[in-house]
Amino acid sequence: xxxxxxxxxxxxxxxxxxxxxxxxxxxxxxxxxxxxxxxxxxxxxxxxxxxxxxxxxxxxxxxxxxxxxxxxxxxxxxxxxxxxxxxxxxxxxxxxxxxxxxxxxxxxxxxxxxxxxxxxxxxxxxxxxxxxxxxxxxxxxxxxxxxxxxxxxxxxxxxxxxxxxxxxxxxxxxxxxxxxxxxxxxxxxxxxxxxxxxxxxxxxxxxxxxxxxxxxxxxxxxxxxxxxxxxxxxxxxxxxxxxxxxxxxxxxxxxxxxxxxxxxxxxxxxxxxxxxxxxxxxxxxxxxxxxxxxxxxxxxxxxxxxxxxxxxxxxxxxxxxxxxxxxxxxxxxxxxxxxxxxxxxxxxxxxxxxxxxxxxxxxxxxxxxxxxxxxxxxxxxxxxxxxxxxxxxxxxxxxxxxxxxxxxxxxxxxxxxxxxxxxxxxxxxxxxxxxxxxxxxxx
Length: 443
Hints:
The protein is of the alpha+beta class. The protein contains 14 helices and 12 strands. It starts with 11 loop residues before the first helix and ends in a 9-residue tail after the last helix. A hairpin with an 8-residue loop joins strand 9 (about 370-380) and strand 10 (about 385-390). The chain has 4 domains: about 10-80, no CATH class; about 95-145; about 170-325, Nucleotidyltransferase, domain 5; about 340-405, no CATH class.
């Protein structure tokens, strides 16, 4: 506590106790006979006083001053605190059954407002009109810990944080305003990853889609730039529960954690960042017409303001300063390639093509048409083309080019290709019978 701050009562009850102690303090410290004490109390009762929180002057009786005096002598300032009402929180205008009904409705419908609850109960005849006010019911809910929007499930929520920077990353997506690209409109999706202990943004990208492949791109970008964390914390959306993401994290030794469904407060750090980003950037994009325009504005806001500004969750420390001592495990390109290589089973079409991640690939081995092969493909952000595995052999895949295929001359059905090596059994016998010399083009 600074020198400029003064010591003040902690609540209204202590203010009242201090007021009472001021009135009887002088009397309590004097050695008075019985008659002198009675005269002193009558003198106090003859005056008018302004109690804390009151706008009118009041008088107090001799018996009241006497009760305060003996309570102060026995228990000090604590003895002068006013006792709370014995029926506090019981809403005296309501019967026990009505109180229990109101409490049960709030427990089952935590987002319903007090006027809506009372209006509904009056409409269906379970409560008489005007029997209780909105304020009384709101006080009943407040005393029972059932404020609007608070879900009571027996779970105590604690403020938690990772023990060091680089231990845990949060990942999420934010829906931005629609962008106009040419004559069409495209959605804006902002994907981000945030370090738990430092609130530092390790990756931030603006794109048009929200798929598992987009999350893999974000993870790949963050791993290349900062290394690998101990764990990644995501929600339960389909973007974050795919097999490819889970397999990638397992191969890299990263623990993948998913929040409980419909538990938004559990993702509070990420939601707080989205709130800051919206207020400082997304809500003021203006004439941004492309993803590039949005991305440079996002990067400028994060690098020039967010990372440098004092953060309340870090007790005034900036995220960039808290991230300065981060310890992340380095990941090289071969390890990334091995982690992001996926094996898929595909059936080869009659034209020798296979679909992989929305792209069409061509196999030049016609005998594989109609067969099931295993396609080994790395993530799009890594170098290398997919290959097909069949019976222990590897067959390269190339991007299908229908236009080039239309110009390729192919053998007609039933038409044998011209021989490259002379071979004519009947001709050899005919030459022998006619006495002609055999051919001299021996190998």
